[in-house]
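Reminder: ligand-aware prediction takes two inputs, not one.
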Amino acid sequence: MRIGNRQFGRQRFPLRNAGFRGAGKFRLIIALVIGGFALLSYCSSATYNPVTGEKQYLSMTPSQEIAMGLQAVNQMAAQHGGLHPDPRLQEFLDSVCQRIIVNSQALETEWQFECHLLNDPNVVNAFALPGGQMFMTYALFRQLETEGQLAGVMAHEIGHVVARHSAQRMAKAQLTQGIIQAIIMGSENQGAGQMAGMIGNMVNMKYGREDELESDSIGVKFMTDAGYDPNALKGVMKILKAAANGRSAPEFFSTHPNPENRIEKIEEAIRQQFPDGLPAGLKP
Ligand SMILES: [Zn+2]
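Here is what comes back for the chain with zinc ion:
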Protein backbone atom coordinates (compact mmCIF):
# COMPACT_ATOMS: atom_id res chain seq x y z
CA MET A 1 0.00 0.00 0.00
CA ARG A 2 1.45 3.34 -1.00
CA ILE A 3 -0.44 6.47 -0.04
CA GLY A 4 0.66 10.00 -0.96
CA ASN A 5 3.05 11.12 -3.65
CA ARG A 6 6.76 11.17 -4.38
CA GLN A 7 7.12 14.77 -3.32
CA PHE A 8 6.39 13.87 0.30
CA GLY A 9 8.55 10.75 0.18
CA ARG A 10 11.63 12.97 -0.15
CA GLN A 11 10.86 15.12 2.84
CA ARG A 12 13.30 14.85 5.73
CA PHE A 13 10.51 14.74 8.30
CA PRO A 14 7.76 12.69 6.67
CA LEU A 15 5.89 12.11 9.97
CA ARG A 16 5.44 15.85 10.56
CA ASN A 17 4.21 16.44 7.01
CA ALA A 18 1.96 13.39 7.04
CA GLY A 19 -0.13 15.03 9.75
CA PHE A 20 -1.36 17.70 7.32
CA ARG A 21 -3.23 15.31 5.11
CA GLY A 22 -6.12 12.94 5.86
CA ALA A 23 -4.38 9.82 4.54
CA GLY A 24 -1.16 10.74 6.32
CA LYS A 25 -2.99 11.29 9.59
CA PHE A 26 -4.72 7.92 9.33
CA ARG A 27 -1.38 6.30 8.59
CA LEU A 28 0.15 7.92 11.65
CA ILE A 29 -2.67 6.77 13.92
CA ILE A 30 -2.35 3.18 12.68
CA ALA A 31 1.42 3.41 13.19
CA LEU A 32 0.95 4.61 16.77
CA VAL A 33 -1.56 1.83 17.46
CA ILE A 34 0.80 -0.85 16.09
CA GLY A 35 3.83 0.54 17.91
CA GLY A 36 1.87 1.15 21.11
CA PHE A 37 0.36 -2.33 21.09
CA ALA A 38 3.78 -3.94 20.57
CA LEU A 39 5.25 -1.93 23.45
CA LEU A 40 2.28 -2.54 25.74
CA SER A 41 2.20 -6.31 25.21
CA TYR A 42 5.98 -6.42 25.76
CA CYS A 43 5.89 -4.40 28.98
CA SER A 44 2.88 -6.26 30.39
CA SER A 45 4.71 -9.59 30.09
CA ALA A 46 7.18 -8.95 32.94
CA THR A 47 8.06 -12.12 34.89
CA TYR A 48 10.51 -12.64 37.74
CA ASN A 49 13.23 -15.24 37.13
CA PRO A 50 14.36 -16.81 40.43
CA VAL A 51 17.66 -18.10 38.98
CA THR A 52 18.93 -14.84 37.50
CA GLY A 53 17.04 -12.64 39.97
CA GLU A 54 15.92 -10.46 37.05
CA LYS A 55 12.62 -9.14 35.79
CA GLN A 56 12.16 -10.55 32.29
CA TYR A 57 9.83 -9.80 29.40
CA LEU A 58 8.44 -13.01 27.93
CA SER A 59 5.67 -13.84 25.50
CA MET A 60 5.48 -17.58 26.26
CA THR A 61 4.55 -19.75 29.22
CA PRO A 62 7.07 -22.40 30.41
CA SER A 63 4.92 -25.21 28.99
CA GLN A 64 4.83 -23.47 25.60
CA GLU A 65 8.62 -23.15 25.71
CA ILE A 66 9.03 -26.85 26.54
CA ALA A 67 6.64 -27.88 23.75
CA MET A 68 8.43 -25.64 21.24
CA GLY A 69 11.82 -27.14 22.11
CA LEU A 70 10.54 -30.72 21.94
CA GLN A 71 8.99 -30.07 18.53
CA ALA A 72 12.33 -28.91 17.13
CA VAL A 73 14.51 -31.78 18.43
CA ASN A 74 14.25 -33.99 15.33
CA GLN A 75 14.80 -31.08 12.97
CA MET A 76 17.91 -29.95 14.88
CA ALA A 77 19.27 -33.49 14.89
CA ALA A 78 18.61 -33.85 11.15
CA GLN A 79 20.52 -30.63 10.44
CA HIS A 80 23.58 -32.08 12.16
CA GLY A 81 23.69 -35.59 10.69
CA GLY A 82 21.33 -37.10 13.27
CA LEU A 83 22.14 -38.25 16.80
CA HIS A 84 25.55 -39.81 17.39
CA PRO A 85 25.32 -43.60 16.96
CA ASP A 86 27.60 -44.56 19.89
CA PRO A 87 25.40 -45.06 22.99
CA ARG A 88 28.47 -44.96 25.32
CA LEU A 89 29.28 -41.38 24.32
CA GLN A 90 25.64 -40.33 24.68
CA GLU A 91 25.51 -41.99 28.13
CA PHE A 92 28.67 -40.16 29.19
CA LEU A 93 27.18 -36.84 28.10
CA ASP A 94 23.94 -37.72 29.95
CA SER A 95 25.83 -38.55 33.15
CA VAL A 96 27.64 -35.19 33.13
CA CYS A 97 24.40 -33.30 32.41
CA GLN A 98 22.60 -35.18 35.20
CA ARG A 99 25.37 -34.46 37.67
CA ILE A 100 25.07 -30.72 36.97
CA ILE A 101 21.26 -30.68 37.07
CA VAL A 102 20.80 -32.63 40.32
CA ASN A 103 23.49 -30.63 42.15
CA SER A 104 22.50 -27.12 41.10
CA GLN A 105 19.57 -24.74 41.22
CA ALA A 106 18.51 -26.24 37.86
CA LEU A 107 16.84 -29.01 39.89
CA GLU A 108 14.37 -26.52 41.38
CA THR A 109 13.20 -25.36 37.95
CA GLU A 110 10.41 -26.79 35.83
CA TRP A 111 12.46 -27.30 32.66
CA GLN A 112 12.63 -30.66 30.94
CA PHE A 113 16.38 -31.07 30.51
CA GLU A 114 17.79 -33.44 27.90
CA CYS A 115 21.29 -33.50 26.39
CA HIS A 116 21.81 -34.80 22.87
CA LEU A 117 25.09 -35.66 21.16
CA LEU A 118 24.87 -34.83 17.45
CA ASN A 119 26.74 -36.78 14.81
CA ASP A 120 28.11 -33.67 13.04
CA PRO A 121 31.92 -34.08 12.74
CA ASN A 122 32.56 -30.62 11.20
CA VAL A 123 30.64 -27.85 12.93
CA VAL A 124 32.04 -27.07 16.39
CA ASN A 125 28.99 -26.01 18.35
CA ALA A 126 26.65 -26.51 21.28
CA PHE A 127 23.25 -24.93 21.74
CA ALA A 128 20.03 -25.02 23.72
CA LEU A 129 16.42 -24.87 22.61
CA PRO A 130 13.74 -23.26 24.75
CA GLY A 131 12.50 -25.50 27.56
CA GLY A 132 15.61 -27.63 28.13
CA GLN A 133 16.59 -29.53 24.97
CA MET A 134 20.39 -29.15 24.61
CA PHE A 135 22.82 -30.27 21.95
CA MET A 136 26.54 -30.72 21.41
CA THR A 137 28.12 -31.65 18.08
CA TYR A 138 30.62 -34.49 17.93
CA ALA A 139 33.05 -32.00 16.35
CA LEU A 140 33.12 -30.11 19.67
CA PHE A 141 32.81 -33.21 21.89
CA ARG A 142 35.93 -34.86 20.45
CA GLN A 143 38.05 -31.74 20.96
CA LEU A 144 37.28 -31.46 24.67
CA GLU A 145 40.17 -32.55 26.88
CA THR A 146 38.53 -33.08 30.28
CA GLU A 147 35.20 -33.99 31.86
CA GLY A 148 35.23 -30.52 33.43
CA GLN A 149 35.31 -28.91 29.98
CA LEU A 150 32.33 -31.01 28.91
CA ALA A 151 30.56 -29.96 32.11
CA GLY A 152 31.45 -26.33 31.36
CA VAL A 153 29.80 -26.43 27.91
CA MET A 154 26.66 -28.11 29.23
CA ALA A 155 26.43 -25.89 32.33
CA HIS A 156 26.60 -22.89 29.97
CA GLU A 157 23.75 -24.36 27.87
CA ILE A 158 21.73 -25.10 31.02
CA GLY A 159 22.34 -21.42 31.83
CA HIS A 160 20.62 -20.37 28.57
CA VAL A 161 17.62 -22.56 29.44
CA VAL A 162 17.13 -21.44 33.06
CA ALA A 163 17.70 -17.77 32.13
CA ARG A 164 15.05 -18.23 29.39
CA HIS A 165 17.21 -16.46 26.81
CA SER A 166 15.38 -17.84 23.75
CA ALA A 167 11.99 -16.78 25.07
CA GLN A 168 13.35 -13.33 25.91
CA ARG A 169 14.86 -12.99 22.43
CA MET A 170 11.54 -14.01 20.86
CA ALA A 171 9.63 -11.43 22.90
CA LYS A 172 12.18 -8.76 21.92
CA ALA A 173 11.95 -9.78 18.26
CA GLN A 174 8.17 -9.38 18.43
CA LEU A 175 8.59 -5.92 19.97
CA THR A 176 11.18 -4.90 17.37
CA GLN A 177 8.96 -6.21 14.58
CA GLY A 178 6.01 -4.20 15.90
CA ILE A 179 8.05 -1.01 16.08
CA ILE A 180 9.57 -1.51 12.62
CA GLN A 181 6.08 -2.03 11.21
CA ALA A 182 4.98 1.15 12.93
CA ILE A 183 7.92 3.14 11.48
CA ILE A 184 7.32 1.78 7.98
CA MET A 185 3.59 2.49 8.31
CA GLY A 186 4.13 5.98 9.71
CA SER A 187 6.63 6.97 7.05
CA GLU A 188 6.45 7.03 3.28
CA ASN A 189 10.19 6.91 3.15
CA GLN A 190 11.39 3.33 2.58
CA GLY A 191 14.84 4.28 3.81
CA ALA A 192 13.35 4.85 7.26
CA GLY A 193 12.11 1.25 7.30
CA GLN A 194 15.53 -0.07 6.35
CA MET A 195 17.15 2.05 9.03
CA ALA A 196 14.64 0.76 11.59
CA GLY A 197 15.46 -2.82 10.55
CA MET A 198 19.18 -2.21 11.00
CA ILE A 199 18.68 -0.73 14.45
CA GLY A 200 16.49 -3.71 15.35
CA ASN A 201 19.22 -6.15 14.32
CA MET A 202 21.84 -4.30 16.34
CA VAL A 203 19.67 -4.32 19.46
CA ASN A 204 18.98 -8.04 19.14
CA MET A 205 22.66 -8.78 18.51
CA LYS A 206 23.72 -6.90 21.63
CA TYR A 207 21.33 -8.86 23.81
CA GLY A 208 22.77 -12.04 22.32
CA ARG A 209 26.24 -11.13 23.61
CA GLU A 210 24.92 -10.32 27.06
CA ASP A 211 23.09 -13.64 27.09
CA GLU A 212 26.36 -15.47 26.41
CA LEU A 213 28.14 -13.77 29.30
CA GLU A 214 25.22 -14.43 31.64
CA SER A 215 25.22 -18.12 30.64
CA ASP A 216 28.96 -18.28 31.31
CA SER A 217 28.35 -16.87 34.78
CA ILE A 218 25.48 -19.29 35.53
CA GLY A 219 27.63 -22.07 34.06
CA VAL A 220 30.46 -21.23 36.48
CA LYS A 221 28.06 -21.51 39.42
CA PHE A 222 26.27 -24.69 38.34
CA MET A 223 29.40 -26.62 37.33
CA THR A 224 31.14 -25.75 40.60
CA ASP A 225 28.02 -26.81 42.57
CA ALA A 226 28.33 -30.16 40.75
CA GLY A 227 32.00 -30.54 41.74
CA TYR A 228 33.68 -29.39 38.52
CA ASP A 229 36.47 -26.80 38.39
CA PRO A 230 35.00 -23.72 36.64
CA ASN A 231 38.46 -22.90 35.25
CA ALA A 232 37.77 -25.72 32.77
CA LEU A 233 35.37 -23.35 31.02
CA LYS A 234 38.37 -21.19 30.10
CA GLY A 235 39.86 -24.20 28.30
CA VAL A 236 36.62 -24.48 26.30
CA MET A 237 37.04 -20.86 25.17
CA LYS A 238 40.54 -21.64 23.90
CA ILE A 239 39.18 -24.61 21.94
CA LEU A 240 36.42 -22.44 20.46
CA LYS A 241 38.97 -19.81 19.49
CA ALA A 242 41.15 -22.36 17.73
CA ALA A 243 38.08 -23.70 15.93
CA ALA A 244 37.16 -20.20 14.77
CA ASN A 245 40.66 -19.69 13.35
CA GLY A 246 40.21 -22.86 11.32
CA ARG A 247 37.41 -23.24 8.84
CA SER A 248 34.77 -24.64 11.19
CA ALA A 249 31.91 -22.67 12.68
CA PRO A 250 32.77 -19.03 12.00
CA GLU A 251 29.01 -18.41 12.33
CA PHE A 252 29.29 -19.26 16.01
CA PHE A 253 31.19 -16.02 16.48
CA SER A 254 28.81 -13.76 14.63
CA THR A 255 26.60 -13.71 17.72
CA HIS A 256 29.14 -14.57 20.43
CA PRO A 257 31.62 -12.28 22.16
CA ASN A 258 35.21 -13.12 21.43
CA PRO A 259 36.72 -15.87 23.61
CA GLU A 260 39.50 -13.64 25.06
CA ASN A 261 36.86 -11.32 26.46
CA ARG A 262 34.87 -14.30 27.78
CA ILE A 263 37.91 -15.74 29.58
CA GLU A 264 38.31 -12.46 31.47
CA LYS A 265 34.61 -12.44 32.34
CA ILE A 266 34.75 -16.07 33.50
CA GLU A 267 37.66 -15.21 35.81
CA GLU A 268 35.65 -12.27 37.11
CA ALA A 269 32.59 -14.52 37.72
CA ILE A 270 34.75 -17.02 39.65
CA ARG A 271 36.21 -14.23 41.83
CA GLN A 272 32.76 -12.76 42.49
CA GLN A 273 30.99 -16.03 43.24
CA PHE A 274 33.82 -17.54 45.28
CA PRO A 275 35.54 -14.60 47.00
CA ASP A 276 37.19 -16.97 49.53
CA GLY A 277 38.47 -19.26 46.81
CA LEU A 278 37.05 -22.34 45.10
CA PRO A 279 36.06 -25.42 47.13
CA ALA A 280 38.75 -28.13 47.34
CA GLY A 281 38.75 -31.32 45.27
CA LEU A 282 37.02 -30.04 42.13
CA LYS A 283 37.24 -32.16 38.98
CA PRO A 284 39.31 -30.48 36.23
ZN1 LIG B 1 25.82 -19.75 24.51
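DSSP finds eleven helices and five strands in the chain. The first helix runs from residue 6 to 9. We will return to this case in the review session.
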